[in-house]
Amino acid sequence: MRNLIFFFYKYYTFILFFLLEFFSFFVLYQYNNYQKASFLNFTGGIASGFYESVNSTTNYFGLRNINDSLLSENARLRAQMLNAYYQSGFTQTSINDTVYKQQYSYISANVVNNSVTKRNNYITIDKGAMHGIEPDMGVISSNGVVGIITSVSKHFATIRSALNGNTKISCMVKKNNAFGSLEWNGDDPKFSSLKYVNKHVPITTEDEVVTSNYSTLFPQGIPVGKIYSHSLDAGDNFHVIKIELYTDFSTLKNVYVIKNILKTEQQILEGDLKGDN
Amino acid sequence: MIIEFLSLILRFFLILLIQLLVINNIELSTYVNPYIYILFILTLPVSMKPWKVVLLSFIAGMTMDTFSSTPGLHMAATGFMGYLRNFYLQFACSKDDIESRMEPSISRKGLVWFVLYMSIMTLIHHTVLFYLEIYSFKEFFRTFFRVLSSSLFTVIILSLGQLLFYRSPKTR
Fold it and tell me: Considering only alpha carbons, which residue of chain A is nearest residue B146?
């Protein structure tokens, strides 16, 4: 017993170091491996509050760009409105609720903190659980895909941006519906890569890449980017595709969080299937 | 004692603010991510008890984690560096330095000593940090390059900061 106490007394620095290091590795492991682990709840959104106050002062410098992007989005949406079309047919169709049931709703949010140069980038937004945001929701901007919600506090939420090693978004080439997975290799925030597209699928540069219908996070057909370059190594089964992203992450200010109303229904159904096997 | 403690806290928040508001916004490249907040640990007095340094390292890392939504990452890296700092200083400092409660700086120990000390500590910190961040050895050489270039920038920024803002006690 005396020896034990003496041992602790002699190596207390190392023991302190070991315990704290063990603790941090534990937290890190948990965060990397479980989707539901919410670090934001643990810290109570202190950092988000700080960034919001910083952001409210620096926001004025980017107002012109924000206005421009909102204007162009307005113009695009206006072009899709019914009164923008010339009516050429005779038949009148009434929009019936039983045919078009709403599946996705959108929550707009402002970016309060963002990074693009780290290996794993995160974005903080100023909407949280109070506004109906939950973990594992897709996030888009007016230009394209942004990322996936990871953790939520009462007033804030963090997004694992598409510029993150752990983010994988199911995508497809628009013209021939060839599926692939969007993964960032950490090189350049303007480009990402599309993996696992089969080699027999013909692709060309400038092909548009959109989100696929396999994902429960994003509606089908949300633009992601266009193919910048592609190559095929001999003996390899998949194309190596470099994608130029539509979303400019370095100037991101406004985003939309996508709420999939039918997501739980789909997941319960698929969960039943897994139980069968 | 209390003044010493308060100045420590003040310095910590000052360095943290510079890191968060200035350095984090330098979006030069994905290979350049300087982390200068480790200066807080590096300039602690040499005579400080090792367990205090380790504890402060973890607190500094945890604060940084809170502001970059990366639980455990900075804590592990800074704690590791803080622990190894004690061993490095044991053979790099003379008895006089320890007795005079020296805070490592260019004016006290000279440019070469300080840059060497800072380079080694920064390399240790950044190596742990960037490899834990990617959490695999899949992109080993790319991450290695990221460690080297970021460390270089960290050391340059810290040295320039020292030369600009720290005056030697004799001239005051």
Answer: A119
**A40-54, A254-268, B151-165, range with the lowest pLDDT:** A40-54
pLDDT of residue A77: 80
B79 and A165: CB-CB below 8 Å? no
Into how many domains does chain B fold?
A: 1
Chain A residues within an 8 Å CB radius of B73:
24, 28
Residue B76 lies in a domain: yes
Instruction: Give the whole-angstrom CA distance, residue B72 versus residue A15.
Output: 18
Distances (CA, A) of B113 to A21, B89, B109, B142: 29, 11, 6, 30
Residue A276 inside a domain? The answer is no
Q: Other CB atoms closer than 10 Å to residue B8's CB: what's the count?
A: 14
Residue B21, domain member (yes or no): no
The whole-angstrom distance between A242's CA and the closest CA on chain B is: 17
List of long-range contacts for A28-37, beta carbons under 8 Å, 24+ apart: A28/B71, A28/B72, A28/B73, A28/B76, A28/B132, A28/B135, A29/B72, A30/B71, A31/B70, A31/B71, A31/B72, A32/A166, A32/B135, A35/A135, A35/A136, A35/A150, A36/A135, A37/A151, A37/B71
Percent of chain B with pLDDT over 70: 96
Q: What is the CATH number of the domain that holds A206?
A: 2.40.10.340
* ipTM associated with this complex: 0.83
Domain extent, residue A230, equals: 37-75+101-261
* % of residues, chain B, pLDDT over 90: 45
Q: pLDDT tens across A93-139, in order?
A: 444 555 566 778 888 888 888 888 888 888 999 888 888 888 888 99
pLDDT at B2 over 90: no
Q: What is the extent of the structural domain holding B152? A: 30-165
